[in-house]
Amino acid sequence: MSSSSLEPVFELHRGGKMAVASTVPLTSREDLSLAYTPGVARVCEAIAAEPALAADYTWIGHTVAVVTDGSAVLGLGNIGARAAMPVMEGKAVLFKQFGGVDAVPICLDTQDVDEIVSVVTALAPSFGGINLEDISAPRCFEIERRLDEALPIPVFHDDQHGTAIVVLAALRNAATLLDRKLADLRVVVSGAGAAGVAVTKMLVAGGVDGAEVVVVDSRGIIHEGRDDLTPVKAELAATTNAAGRTGGIAEALAGADVLVGVSGGQISEEAVAGMAPGGIVFALANPTPEVHPDVAARHAALVATGRSDFPNQINNVLAFPGIFRGALEARASRITDAMKVAAADAVAGVVADALHPDAFVPSALDPRVAPAVAAAVAAAAQADHA
User: Fold this and answer.
1) Residue 4 scores a pLDDT above 60
2) Which of these is catalytic: 91, 201, 233, 340?
3) Domain end call among 122, 153, 184
């Protein structure tokens, strides 16, 4: 911490990256009587009689909780609740900057599924949505499912769905650049954690043929002949890899058109070289991609990473601010697959008229993205009656 190279980082974080600000004046007795007692009682009574009014007369209509247990933070792993707070604050300020959504970081000092579900359920009346963040697989699947079933507000695990939405958007534009159809691509997903599972499902929902998707975990290709699969991976085995391929990542990539890396493990240049000519590589592990972009570019036509210092960054900030903005505006009770696909289409559409091999994904700072995503998600929510 004494290193001079770290000082700007610590200075920026001193005192935290966010604060609470009042939106109303408090300069007179009349102001106090309206904002607090006795005037506030009338608003409380109205909400008690009609709970939906809370979205109009409190911050609930534009506020989400960013919830973590600190078990899978960025590339840092299980660092616990307190150490996760700087990341959750960062997420909250991204919500505000890019989506106009207020967000409150909540770091829970428990990694028990039942306790997390109970605490978040109890906190939910204070928020219009729940963004789950940096919770390790496979617990994250159950936590999201149970909260989604229990709560009348949107629940969204960004590590799963945010990544998957931006991957689908990027693949749509990459396929357009190469004059290919999604349904004709053979795709390999390296990684079967939260992101890998969601990417696989999102790509299939978006038009990729599930039979032509091969998912690889740390023990090799996922197929129905394996006896070591979790229920989530068993579901993947039943819906992908129709050819029954076996082996490791090299066997999976032989002749493949697309590699989506969300594992953090390294992939050899020899394995990438075995892909079909004119392929697509998304190496998304941070800070070290599964295959270096320069190496990938020797064998693939189009390359994207999760890093900001290379072209075509697959960044979740392209998705989650607009998704929650749209869901909140539509008063949606959940986030459906159709809303996620609509978000991906909107992200892709922002740069659809100016596609280039080094720019088929919008910049994370592009101000057009969040409004486009919000509008698309809100429309899809209304169509879905979400």
Assistant:
1) no
2) 91
3) 153
